[in-house]
Design brief:
The complex is a heterodimer of chains A (640) and B (335). Chain A is mainly α and 640 residues long. Chain A contains 21 helices and seven strands. In chain B, strand 2 (179-182) and strand 3 form a beta hairpin. Chain B has ten helices and three strands, in the order ααααααβββαααα. Chain B is mainly alpha-helical and 335 residues long. Chain B has a two-stranded antiparallel sheet. In chain B, helix 5 packs across helix 6 (134-159) and helix 7 packs across helix 10 (313-327). Chain B is elongated, with a radius of gyration of 28 Å. The model of chain B is unreliable at 29-34 (pLDDT under 50). Classes of the chains: A mainly alpha (640), B mainly alpha (335).
């Protein structure tokens, strides 16, 4: 790092480094191109000999590929399946996969979070605040570094588990994705390098000018690499659900891009980026809460209180669009195969969606609860206390509506008493019209809660304050009326139009988010302060709420992962490669629930170790008052 | 002024007291002109608003400041009464358990929602646990005696052998196969269309456009092509196949034979059944019946016969057309 002290050398070095990393990012596209070229070359000289076949997904005139691989193997038990004692092989693989995914998501999400924090820090005019953001970003990166090693170890375990337990299936998948599997490994090396440069170069490049921007650019590259890595992994699971680039026998047709770019690839990509970012925010908030509860000095408490708020805010920002990304994914699933959509949402796995709805409801209720608790540290917030119970009521009613299952569990006697499988009143809540309405109302309530949080310790002084308040009132009321009206109207129109109605519903919600928060922020400009925020004086309940938030994120990921994987039923690769192991049946919901809980527990145990490690080294560097500006009110982004 | 306020209060109380049973009556389908299912959302919201209104009246207007310690169980009991008694027909226990769990969480959040709330709620508990006065001691003894007794009763009740029918997790919509073979023709369930969904010019009638024919008489001599097909489907429903014996005249699953079956037949008038499905899905279920259900989620319980053995493909398509026309629902589509 010493050479960075010479600004000229440092600049050249940074530019060269960025250039090299940028070039290396082109790597993924080389084999794809090469694969296509190879297929063309093969087809040219021996045109008569080549066998052509129809792509299972990319059908249509002229879309015929050249058979470039053997058919999918017909797997047999026990030849093509391994075992470890009496354990179900798939359960072992389940744990290995889930743990790797958790840590992978964490190390993917934290750099996103850190990038934003570093950028916010750099854009701060107040130097103290800039330093606070920068230090927080640095601290999080340290946590991520330990988690990164664990991710790599878990990745190794996962590969060995695949090789030992599912060699036939893994062999088939790696034959198809051979070109990009190598790139995946190479990108991992690249990511490690970038990560280490980013972390260890933090202090050396912290010149407040050009080098700092280079450092931020490295974070951008790190995130880009991470996202490409995730896209690659998503392409494999996308292929397993909605195969493409192969014929009906599973023979590869020479175009790797088609196998990567399946029907569900992009919905999965978008859903996972948002999901990971929300999860990362939740875990960082939990870390900060842990440190907050364990803090011994008021300064430390203030710092971690603020940090947990910022992380929670980041998590929620990504959580809000997540249900919409989920709807898109489900729509694409339905579009791809009706039976997959029905198995997921109306059939065998419908109850898992109820579990998921419960988790999402917990996330929104907990977020609001945290904000209510957080208002306890704002002088003047008492004015709004009376509103909390109504917001809670709206959230609970929405939760009840969302949790109402379409497929009820009941005794035959209860079925007869009810007069059918659906209840004449409650049955209305078991369908999407009600559920869309419920989630949009929950999100709108959360946005409303946030607007209140913004103005807790302030009184607007702008001339148009009365008009602004009236506008905000009308905006939220109008949005709620529109959402509920469209929800009810949805029962009277065809399904394809009804699904379209979710767009204006979402628009209402997003309008409250963007317009509502913007107007509210403008109103708070130059507002009269009723007192400074008392960071560090939040009730412990608020911190526990953040733990609940983070664990709910984790559990939701586990549930949804199980759901996505189970929808293939007895297929390794849907309709191409059959699962002929004794574990091809779908697990009961109770078993899946226990497995998910066990996975969550295991992840959090490991994560607590990571947190503990973070705290261990932090003890060496006690917080110094003059450095962090203790006593001065800290102003998190987007709130004050 | 005071008199006016008093009158207004009396009216408000009367309104609240009357509103609850009226809403309950309406929600149970007690009003002939009101379709309980369609107005369910409004009714449920009305119930919620009624309860809040009542609480507001008692607490803020009549000036009875309920202690928080009493408010919590009161909310819980009110919710229980709504879900257990007012909501008719009765909901299954599993659903009641879900609802009450959410209500319990809601109540817990309510009492801890702000620091003053929590302090007000916990103050009598702390007093009971810590104070040395006779009153506190007495409540302590009662509480500490009641807790193990309640636990013991709960355990006894749980362990007591019961002779009830076991609960069933019955999948309402089993996943269909990709394609089926009916009368030696392969039908792709993802892409197939009802051949009788056509207008007078012979063009395919897009889903939703058939609403123009709702409420019109299919037996009219000049009935359009679409309605003629609906009529033919009706003849199958009431005549050839006699579907109404099980599914009922109103397609609500309450035909004269319905309650001889376990489970009782599907209620097509519910927005959660055929309106959630593609026409091809219904075609699969009608043609293959109970024996043709997918292996996923076995064992099935369905007395539905495989109608392909008794009806032609055309008759099946027409009866499906009739079912949608009669209920006023539209099949699911993705275009």
């Amino acid at each position: 790092m010493r050479s960075f002290n010479d600004p000229r050398k440092a600049k050249i070095g940074a530019v060269v480094l960025l250039g090299v990393i940028g070039l290396l990012l082109l790597l993924p596209f080389i084999p794809m191109q090469a694969g296509a070229e190879e297929a063309k070359q093969e087809s040219a000289p021996a045109e008569k000999k080549v066998e052509k076949a129809k792509d299972v997904y990319y059908k249509g005139p002229g879309e015929f590929g050249i058979v470039s691989g053997p058919p999918a193997p017909k797997l047999k038990y026990p030849d093509d399946y391994g075992t470890y004692g009496t354990f179900q092989s798939r359960t072992i693989l389940w744990v290995a996969n889930q743990q790797h995914l958790y840590f992978g998501s964490f190390v993917l999400a934290v750099p996103m979070f850190v990038f934003v924090m570093e950028l916010v820090g750099m854009l701060q005019k107040d130097k103290l605040m800039a330093k606070k953001y920068d230090d927080m970003a640095h601290e999080m990166m340290k946590i991520s570094l330990t988690a990164y090693s664990i991710t790599a170890v878990l990745g190794g375990i996962l590969i060995f588990t695949f090789l030992a337990l599912y060699p036939g299936f893994f062999g088939y998948l790696s034959r198809i994705f051979k070109p990009i599997m190598h790139v995946y490994a190479l990108l991992f090396i690249l990511e490690s390098g970038t990560l280490y440069i980013y972390y260890y170069g933090w202090d050396g490049m912290n010149d407040g000018g050009f080098l700092k921007w280079c450092h931020l650019s490295i974070a951008f590259l790190l995130n880009t690499i991470g996202i490409i890595l995730m896209f690659f992994a998503n392409s494999w699971i996308g292929f397993m659900m909605s195969p493409a680039g192969v014929d009906e026998q599973g023979r590869f047709l020479g175009d790797i891009w088609k196998s990567v770019h399946t029907a569900l690839w992009h919905p999965l990509n978008v859903h996972r980026i948002l999901g990971n970012a929300a999860f990362g925010g939740g875990v960082v908030a939990a870390y900060a809460s842990y440190r907050f509860l364990a803090a011994k000095t008021p300064e430390e408490k203030a710092h971690y209180d603020w940090m947990s708020y910022v992380a929670m805010f980041m998590g929620i920002l990504n959580l809000i669009p997540l249900p919409f990304a989920g709807y898109w994914l489900m729509r694409e699933v339905y579009g791809y195969r009706q039976q997959m959509g029905i198995t997921l949402m109306g059939g065998l796995l419908a109850w898992v969606f109820i579990m998921q709805a419960m988790m999402i409801a917990i996330l929104f209720v907990t977020t609001n609860y945290y904000l209510w608790q957080a208002m306890g540290r704002m002088p003047g917030a008492e004015r709004y206390y009376r509103l909390f119970k109504y917001m809670l009521l709206v959230l609970i009613v929405a939760t009840i509506s969302w949790l109402t299952p379409h497929t009820l569990v009941m005794t035959p006697a209860e079925l007869k008493a009810m007069g059918g499988a659906q209840h004449p009143i409650v049955g209305n809540y078991g369908v999407m019209s009600a559920k869309n309405t419920a989630v949009n109302i929950m999100i709108t309530t959360t946005v409303f809660c946030f607007c209140i949080y913004q103005r807790c310790n302030k009184v607007p002084t702008v001339k148009w304050a009365a008009a602004g308040n009236a506008f905000l009132g009308a905006l939220f009321t109008g949005a709620a009326v529109n959402i509920v009206f469209l929800g009810i109207y949805g029962y009277f129109i065809p399904a394809n139009v009804r699904i379209g109605l979710s767009v204006p519903q979402v628009c209402s919600t997003l309008t409250t988010l963007f317009v509502g928060v913007t107007i509210n922020t403008m109103m708070m400009k130059g507002a009269r302060q009723l007192g400074e925020v008392r960071w560090g004086q939040m009730s412990p309940r608020g911190s526990y709420a953040l733990f609940c938030l983070a664990v709910s994120f984790t559990w939701t990921m586990a549930v949804m992962g199980y759901l996505r994987s189970s929808v293939r039923l007895h297929w390794h690769v849907n309709e191409i490669l059959r699962d002929n192991s004794p574990w091809a049946f779908t697990n009961p919901v109770g078993y899946a629930g226990n497995m998910n809980s066990m996975n969550v527990l295991l992840f959090w145990t490991m994560l607590l170790f990571v947190f503990w490690l973070g705290a261990l080294s932090a003890k060496k560097a006690p917080v110094r008052e003059e450095e962090v500006g203790v006593g001065k009110a800290t102003l998190p982004a987007g709130s004050h | 002024m005071l008199k006016q306020r008093g009158t207004s209060l009396i009216l408000q109380v009367l309104f609240t007291v009357l509103a609850l049973p009226m809403l309950a009556w309406a929600s149970g389908g007690g009003v002939e002109w009101m379709d309980a299912g369609k107005f369910a959302l409004i009714i449920e919201m009305g119930l919620g608003i009624g309860v809040i209104f009542l609480a507001w009246l008692i607490k803020d207007k009549l000036g009875f400041p309920f202690p928080k310690l009493l408010q919590a169980p009161l909310i819980w009991i009110t919710a229980f009464i709504i879900f257990r008694v007012i909501l008719q027909p009765p909901i299954p226990f599993s659903l009641l358990a879900i609802y009450m769990t959410v209500v319990t969480i809601g109540v817990l959040l309510y009492i801890t929602i702000t620091q003053p709330n929590w302090e007000e709620f916990s103050k009598p508990i702390v007093f009971m646990l810590q104070e040395d006065s006779g009153k506190a001691k007495m409540s302590r003894y009662i509480t500490f005696a009641a807790v193990p007794v309640l636990l013991a009763y709960g355990t006894y009740n749980k362990m007591l052998p019961k002779f009830e029918e076991p609960v069933e997790l019955r999948t309402v919509h089993p996943a269909p196969p990709a394609s089926i073979n009916v009368h030696d023709k392969i039908l792709n369930l993802q892409t197939a269309e009802n051949p009788y969904r056509i207008d007078d010019s012979g063009k395919y009638l897009k889903v939703g456009l058939e609403s123009a024919y709702f409420g019109k008489n299919p037996w009219a001599t000049d009935a359009p092509k679409y309605l003629q097909n609906v009529r033919d489907g009706g003849i199958v429903f009431f005549g050839t196949a006699g579907c109404f014996f099980c599914h009922g005249d109103n397609l609500d699953g309450k035909g004269p034979f319905a309650f001889a079956f376990n489970p009782i037949p599907a209620n097509f008038a519910d927005p959660g059944t055929i309106s959630q499905l593609q026409e091809t899905f219904v075609f699969w279920r009608v043609s293959k019946g109970g024996p043709g259900l997918s292996r996923e989620g076995f064992p099935w319980a369905s007395a539905m016969p495989p109608w392909e053995k008794h009806l032609t493909t055309n008759e099946i398509w027409r009866v499906i057309l009739f079912e949608y026309w009669h209920t006023g629902f539209f099949p699911r589509t993705w275009d």
